[in-house]
Amino acid sequence: MTTISTPQSAVRAVTDHANLPAGTDDRVGGFGIMGLPFDTGHYLAYRDFGASSFSPAYRSVWHRDPDGRWTFYATTPAEQSCARYFSSATTIPAVQCAIATTWADPWSLTIAIPGLLRWTVGMASTVTTRTVSRLGRALPERAWASRPVLAAMGRMAGPLLGTGEMRLTGHVPNGQGFRVAPRQIWAVRESRAVLRGMNLGALAPLATQDRLADFRLPQRGLCVIGTARFDSFDPHRHISARHTAPTMPEAAC
Description:
Elements: H1 7-16, E1 26-37, E2 43-52, E3 58-64, E4 70-74, H2 83-86, E5 95-96, E6 100-105, E7 108-113, E8 117-124, H3 127-138, H4 141-144, H5 147-161, E9 169-171, E10 177-195, E11 198-199, E12 211-212, E13 215-216, E14 222-230
Parallel strand pairs: 4-5
Antiparallel strand pairs: 1-2, 1-14, 2-3, 3-4, 6-7, 7-8, 8-10, 9-10, 10-11, 10-14, 12-13
């Protein structure tokens, strides 16, 4: 008999035994809500990396407003958080702040930025997510490090999971190459988010799927345990985490 791992138990396990794949590039590992679109045009994503090769453990919330402006919040400075790779996609400097999490039950997580955001996410296991998770746990590490393998998996995963186009390898806005290895997946079944006192509305795909360079933002909520690799920062080829766009970028299509 197969026991279904709950998100809470999986996050606890990866937090208690944080480890990274071997390598000399930038590597992170942990839990994330890949992205969640709302019918108001807002979009949220969450990262909880208990292991990182370039920073202490950190949490990050990404927010896109209906005009396409991104803000990256994190518990660590810009150079030691997701802004290290995505800062040039926005006109808004990265925000360092506290981010708290609580589990109401093994399938429901609340993420809070004091005075700004309260976001509750209910997760579920489905036939599709269980199938993808079994594949993810079975693949050898060399497959997760292979760009051709990840490119093929991304092309298949988008239609299978109903997320729109998906890329597991490519380049982020600041220029680094990325490789994402989602090893265990759950679907978001419900969510409620209140930002600055405003309810962000019901879950619904964006009118046009957004992207940050090659990184596609899923049109359906997925929660993931996994790892990611990025090229190590090279000042001659990559944009500094402190650099933001000089003008508001148009929403990507």
